[in-house]
Specification:
This protein has 215 residues and is of the alpha+beta class. The protein contains 3 helices and 11 strands, in the order H-E-H-E-E-H-E-E-E-E-E-E-E-E. It has one domain: Jelly Rolls, CATH 2.60.120. It starts with 7 loop residues before the first helix and ends in a 12-residue tail after the last strand.
């Protein structure tokens, strides 16, 4: 695979939007060829039984609750060239987020997320208020095609959780970015298999008596 780069102008636009409104939907951020490779890998891992039911909470508080969340996941750890290339792109974005916003991001973690028909993820925040380690959330969409009546939209709400801000339809190569602590969000029930990569740019909140919880 080639050494891909995110467009600098587009990165700046995304960062400006994060500052101004807390979210940004970046159309065609990830090349189609890379999305196709990642989509094929996710399908293969599903066929091989390598996906795990996703839970809620982190560390010792992690638990399964299908009334809240029903997707299946597999963590990205550079096992394949496609994974490595995607993580390299996110590292570029991490460096720019740190350079421009001084967020102190030290890690990016991500997993495949497959929503089967009927699956959803109820409204939640990705980070606890006042104890944030996940700073910026990313979602990259992998399905080659998606129709409006298939559902599965990502819905973002304002910080006070009183108003819907936007509904983002899965589009191949699109990258949704939003502030993890700031915006509640949910994934609406899908009518078709919905493939994506969910990720988080993290800062280190460990102290001498509290270790930053694992993924």
């Amino acid at each position: 695979m080639f050494n891909l780069q995110l467009e600098s102008e587009s990165i700046n636009t995304a960062i400006d939007a994060l500052v101004d409104k807390g979210w940004y939907f970046w159309h065609n951020a990830i090349p189609t060829s890379l999305c196709d490779a990642l989509y094929f890998e996710l399908q293969q891992r599903q066929q091989d039984g390598e996906l795990q039911q996703a839970g809620i909470g982190r560390g010792q508080e992690h638990q399964l609750n299908q009334r809240i969340r029903r997707d299946a996941i597999h963590w990205l750890e550079r096992q394949t060239p496609a994974q490595a290339q995607y993580l390299d792109l996110m590292q570029q974005l991490q460096l720019e987020l740190n350079r421009q916003l001084f967020l102190g991001l030290f890690e990016y973690e991500a997993h495949f997320a497959l929503y089967s028909p009927g699956d959803f993820y109820k409204k939640h925040r990705d980070s606890f208020r006042g104890a944030a380690n996940r700073m910026v959330t990313s979602v990259t969409y992998l399905n080659p095609t998606w129709q409006a009546d298939w559902g599965g939209e990502l819905v973002l709400y304002n910080e006070e959780d009183t108003q819907e801000l936007t509904r983002l339809m899965p589009q191949c190569g699109a990258l949704a970015l939003f502030m993890s602590e700031q915006l509640p969000h949910e994934v609406l029930p899908t009518r078709q298999p919905r493939a994506s990569i969910a990720g988080w740019f993290r800062c280190n909140t460990s102290t001498h008596d509290l270790v930053n919880p694992p993924k």
